[in-house]
């Protein structure tokens, strides 16, 4: 259960949400995405209620969830082409090449998901969000299964997103990623915000995450 949370995410801002297993991070992200309905209160996107089925929301909000959802018989490049085409991106070929290289997937462009490592699969999920237009990016533990280099590039990616004016809600277990990528960090415990502030102030050794921060 989540207690009431009042959170505004501005364009170009990254807010990180941290907390122990079961503290409510993914629940918050699903509610923010319009995927789950809160029992009280509401979520608005650009002044209107958030609804994941709303075409305006689908066109402008990219979600990278915590479960891999892929087509087993489509290659990496075909996934990206499919997403770009569905979102009306014309002549996406060069951009897809760029995203493939950026996520270190260029050597696996013709591989199907079952031939990827778990980290490469996670990179594919991220890549799918990058080949489509977006004003809001919702990330649920995007660092999962990524090696340290890929995690650093994830932080760079989020910085590039915010520099482009994209709002990013980042659910993460990785305090260093939050420090590098986010301007604000919330810590949840039992569905309640127990800390909220600049990552360097919140994610300290004597903060709510203790030695994990
Ligand atoms: N589909 C569901 N139905 C009922 N309860 C759920 C469901 N999903 C999560 N919960 C419960 O809601 C609480 C918050 O879960 P949530 O997945 O948001 O935590 P989390 O902070 O994202 O955890 P983790 O770090 O393990 O991913 C937990 O007590 C969990 O058992």
Short description:
This protein is α/β, with parallel strands linked by helices. 35% of the residues lie in helices and 17% in strands.
If you had to describe this structure to a student in words, what would you say it looks like?
This is ABC transporter related protein. The chain is α/β, with parallel strands linked by helices. It has a single domain, classed as 3-Layer(aba) Sandwich (Rossmann fold), CATH 3.40.50. It contains eight helices and eight strands, in the order E-H-E-E-H-E-H-H-H-E-H-E-H-E-E-H. The strands form two sheets. A six-stranded mixed sheet has the order 4-5-6-1-7-8, with helices on both faces. It has a two-stranded antiparallel sheet with strand order 2-3. The model has no long low-confidence stretch (mean pLDDT 93). It binds adenosine-5'-triphosphate (ATP). Adenosine-5'-triphosphate is lined by residues 19, 21-27. Adenosine-5'-triphosphate (ATP) is lined by residues 19, 21-27.
């Amino acid at each position: 259960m989540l207690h009431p949370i009042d959170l505004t995410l501005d364009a170009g801002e990254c807010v990180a949400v941290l907390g122990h297993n079961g503290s409510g991070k993914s629940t918050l992200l699903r509610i923010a995405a319009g995927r789950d309905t809160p029992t009280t209160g509401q979520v608005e996107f650009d002044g209107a209620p958030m609804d994941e089925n709303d075409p305006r929301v689908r066109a402008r909000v990219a979600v990278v969830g915590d479960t891999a959802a892929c087509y087993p018989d489509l290659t990496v490049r075909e996934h990206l082409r499919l997403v770009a085409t569905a979102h009306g991106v014309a002549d996406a070929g060069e951009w897809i090449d760029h995203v493939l290289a950026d996520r270190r997937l260029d050597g696996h462009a013709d591989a199907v998901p079952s031939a990827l490592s778990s980290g490469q699969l996670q990179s594919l999920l991220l890549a799918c969000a990058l080949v489509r237009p977006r004003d809001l990016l919702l990330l649920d533990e995007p660092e999962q299964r990524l090696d340290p280099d890929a995690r650093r590039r994830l932080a760079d990616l989020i910085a590039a997103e915010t520099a482009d004016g994209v709002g990013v809600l980042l659910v993460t277990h990785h305090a260093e990623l939050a420090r590098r990528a986010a301007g604000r960090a919330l810590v949840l415990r039992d569905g309640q915000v127990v800390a909220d502030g600049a990552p360097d102030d919140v994610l300290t050794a004597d903060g709510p995450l203790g030695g994990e921060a």
